[in-house]
Design a protein that fits this description.
This protein has one domain: TIM Barrel (Alpha-Beta Barrel), CATH 3.20.20. It is built from 13 helices and eight strands. Bound molecules: adenine and zinc ion. Zinc ion binds next to strand 1. The site of adenine (ADE) has 9 residues, from loops. This is Adenosine deaminase. GO terms for molecular function: deaminase activity; hydrolase activity, acting on carbon-nitrogen (but not peptide) bonds, in cyclic amidines; metal ion binding.
């Protein structure tokens, strides 16, 4: 059996970012929205750099206008994940795109997403948990609205709270209030840091937001003392190698720090982030890591074990998935 066939645990995937381009085109046609400018000639998403990626990403989300659209999206995304033999996935959902941060609207969107997830669990055996996520460049006030949405729906399906978006906007600590709200609601926390920001951004996420996991975190490698701290504290990195290479955080997979971080005792996991944007799947991530770093089944088993331990779910779910 090839390592690409192994069962997989994924902790970092944005539902909007996982929207297949053909799905986006189909919805755009139904709704008579012109988003043709965001596609390349071969039909894939086209962007120049990270800022442009965010613009294209947000343009694509315009086609997602109703809970039913998210129901269909969730089914399509989980079907793709299941085809990579992902058995457990945590998906970032942005209430900003699901009703603009209004709690009543968010409940409707979330209900549709949860229904699709329950169906896919029955049909394809994939378990999904949801992490409402603030979009950093929408600012701290909007992040509080997102945290309110998360608070109001915390439970078996909504188990965490996170933040993505443009890491160059403000500091992690500017969002501490939103993260405090989520923590008080019993939600587990993660923030994108050390993708575009340097080691200081990772330090701030740990210190000011008190997160258990970091989205990406790979630029921690620039500061050996920080790497040691992260390893000792057991902070888990949601590493997305294909994303980092496609967006230019790393020049190539061979130069990616994941293997080095792992050697130094950091708890690393592997995810896709926004798979169609990066021509990635979990199957491809595993395959590429095994080719470039020589990782074998035992290495991937260990990776999966780390991910399952760090998953934002209850122990009964963890045991059912294992
Ligand atoms: N939102 C979706 N993908 C992202 C990424 N790679 N970095 C920050 N925000 C994101
Ligand atoms: Zn991400």
């Amino acid at each position: 059996m090839s390592v690409a066939d192994l069962p997989k645990i994924e902790l970092h995937m944005h539902i909007e970012g996982a929207m297949p381009p053909a799905f986006a085109r189909g919805l755009a046609q139904e709704k008579k929205i012109d988003i043709s400018g965001i596609f390349a000639g071969d039909g894939s998403y086209r962007y120049r750099d990270f800022r442009d990626f965010l613009r294209v990403y947000e343009a694509a989300t315009q086609v997602l206008q109703t809970p039913q659209d998210y129901y269909r999206l969730t089914r399509a995304v989980l079907e793709e994940s299941a085809a990579s033999n992902v058995v457990y996935t945590e998906s970032f959902l942005a209430p900003d795109f699901c009703g603009g941060g209004d709690v009543t609207a968010w409940r409707d969107y979330l209900g549709a997403i949860e229904q699709a997830a329950a169906e896919m669990e029955r049909e394809a055996g994939i378990v999904m948990r949801a992490i409402p996520t603030a979009v950093r460049h929408f600012g701290p006030e909007q992040a509080k609205r997102t945290a309110r949405c998360a608070q109001e729906t915390a439970g078996r399906f909504v188990t965490g709270f996170g933040m993505g978006g443009d890491e160059a906007m403000g500091r992690q600590g500017d969002f501490a209030y939103a993260f405090d709200m989520a923590r008080e609601a019993g939600l587990r926390l993660t923030s994108h840091a050390g993708e575009w920001g340097g080691p200081e951004s990772v330090r701030e996420a740990i210190r000011d937001l008190r997160v258990a996991r970091i989205g990406h975190g790979v630029r921690a490698i620039e500061d050996p003392a920080l790497v040691e701290e992260i390893a000792e504290a057991g902070i888990v990195l949601e590493v997305c190698p294909g994303s980092n290479v496609a967006l230019g955080v790393c020049r190539s997979l061979a130069r990616h720090p994941i293997a080095d971080l792992r050697r130094r005792g950091v708890k690393v996991t592997v995810s896709t982030d926004d798979p169609p944007f990066f021509h990635s799947t979990m199957r491809r991530e595993f395959n590429d890591l095994s080719e470039v770093f020589g990782w074998e089944a035992g290495d991937f088993d260990a990776l999966n074990e780390t991910a399952l331990e760090a998953a934002f779910c209850d122990d009964a779910t963890r045991e059912a998935v294992a």
